[in-house]
Amino acid sequence: MKTKAAAIEDRVDDLLIVLDKDIQHIQESLSRLNELRTLVIKRDDVALGKLLEEIRAEAGSFTANELKRRSIREGLAVALGCNFEQMTLSRLETILPEEKRVQAAERKTKLRSLTEELKKEHLSTALLLSECARFNNMLLKSIFDFGNKGTLVYSSRGTASRHSDGAFVSLQL
């Protein structure tokens, strides 16, 4: 029985290390979203390209961490005699000694707060990119949709007239 408890405790230690890496990854993701928004606003294409390359390069390491977490979770589920889906941090907390329970609870709380913050930042970034796309579409439409309907222009006297010629810039004063 002692060996089973020791094996579970070793797996819990491994899980805590993996959760620390998850916390670090989410913090880096938050930082990258802020950097992405800044670079989009500044229109720094070179830095955006570098940022995207960094993200692609680090995607593999996060995948490895996910696989390790899944493996540890499966091992804990087998050791505790439950299904993989039932093996959660909350369930694990109920059987852990006080010291490990506190560590697991701290990580769970930190992960929850970071994921909520990540959702907000992701939404902010998506809205910014959506507005950029909308603005670019309006700009392109105004440039390349010349001659179809004409542009409504008001003179200094307040009279309206439509210009339907195909020039980009009206040189009429």
Gist?
By secondary structure, the chain is mostly helical.
Question: Any overview of this molecule?
Answer:
- The chain is mainly alpha-helical.
- The protein has a single domain, classed as Methane Monooxygenase Hydroxylase, Chain G, domain 1.
- Helices cover 76% and strands 5% of the residues.
- The chain contains four helices and two strands; from the N terminus they run ααααββ.
- Strand 1 and strand 2 form a beta hairpin.
- Helix 1 runs parallel beside helix 4.
Strands, helices and their partners?
Blueprint: H1 2-42, H2 45-80, H3 89-95, H4 98-144, E1 151-154, E2 160-163
Tags for this model:
173 residues; mainly alpha; Methane Monooxygenase Hydroxylase, Chain G, domain 1; two-stranded antiparallel sheet; 4 helices; 2 strands; 76% helix
The CATH class is identified as Mainly Alpha
Q: Helical region count?
A: 4
Distance between the termini: 93 Å
Order of helices and strands: HHHHEE
Pick out the low-confidence regions. none
The computed structural class is: mainly alpha
Give helix % range: over 70%
Compute the number of strand runs: 2
Note the main sheet.
2 strands, antiparallel
Estimated share of beta-strand residues:
under 5%
| CATH topology assignment | Methane Monooxygenase Hydroxylase, Chain G, domain 1
Overall number of domains: 1
- Our Rg estimate from Cα atoms comes to 28 Å
The CATH architecture would be Up-down Bundle
